Every structure is written in C-alpha cells, then in structure tokens.
Amino acid sequence: MKNMVEETETAGQALGLHLRFVAVQGPNDFDPAFSTIGAERSDAVMVFPSPMLFNERTRIVDLARKLRLPLISMGKEFVKLGGLMSYGADITDVIRRGATYVDKILKGAKPADLPVEQPTKFELSINLKTAKELGVDIPATLLARADEVIE
Using CA atoms, how far apart are residues 151 and 149, in angstroms rounded to an integer? Predict the structure, then answer.
C-alpha cells in the first residue's frame, strides 16, 4: 500500500494536483472520513484496492454521491453502483488464474515451484449516467478505450 500511495503522490505532483489522503481502518471510519473530504471541498475521491473497502463499496459510493464527488476505484463493481470510473485488474480473470494454481497443487505440484503471476488483463469502466449527474465530460477518446460504458 505504501508504494501505491507514493506512486499516486508522484503522479499527482506531475499533474499539478493537490492530493489529500484520508485513511480508514474500518467501517466506523467512513462517516468521519467523508466529513473531512466534504469539509476540505475535495474535487474527487479515489479508492485504493482493499478487501474491506471492496466489501463496503455500496456505502462508499453512496457517501461520495451525497457529496456529489466523482469516485474513481480499482474495480468495475464500484462503477456499477454509481462510481464514475474504474481501472484495474479483471477480477474474474485473476480468480480463473488462481483456480488453475489450485488445480496444479491438487495434482501434486509444490506451491513453491509455481511461478508468481501478475494480472495481465485490465479493465476500464465508465459510468456515463454518473458523469452526467456530476456534470463531468468524458472525452470521446477515453470512452472509445473503455471496456464497459454504463449509460
């Protein structure tokens, strides 16, 4: 996670953006976190990959929507609930690849002998309905590259 924060800070600086990281340790931290985000008049919310955040995606999308903030996430599941856009590994593909590892192990392969794989299939999802609600214009070039566009 530390590496992801550093890379995001570097990208933000290169783009001339001011980033404010608001950490949440558990579900009880969402209301105070979004109060901080609202009080600071943030322009958007970005959700980093986390099992806890994924499990709380409906609540996160709802809180961002109440503040009328675009929400960018790592998974299309947020976009289907009303988040603005996501870019990340195709979770279905990751699970499928994991199943092949389980199969190999059940057939006698030693886990230590199996190569480590990184995701190779990534998806860009955009919710045009949310973009319209927020008054955000999505460039046609970005829409053309999207794997899924929700209208």
Answer: 6
What is the rounded distance in angstroms from the CA atom of residue 7 to the CA atom of residue 117? 21
Q: Which two tokens stand for residue 42?
A: 């943030």
What does the pLDDT look like over 7-62, one tens digit per residue? 988 998 999 888 889 989 999 999 999 999 999 998 999 999 889 999 999 999 99
Up-side HSE of residue 46: CA atoms within 13 Å toward CB? 12
What is the pTM (predicted TM-score) of this model?
Answer: 0.83
d(CA 14, CA 8): 10
What does the pLDDT read at residue 129? 96
Q: What gap in Å lies between CA 75 and CA 26, rounded to an integer? A: 19
The domains of the chain, with CATH numbers, are 2-88+121-150 (3.40.50.2300)
Residues in the chain: 151
Give yes or no for a contact between 48 and 2, defined as CB atoms under 8 angstroms apart: no
The helix (H) or strand (E) run that includes residue 140 is: helix 140-145
Amino acid in the structure at residue 14: A
**DSSP assignments along 106-121, one per residue:** HTT--GGGSPP-----
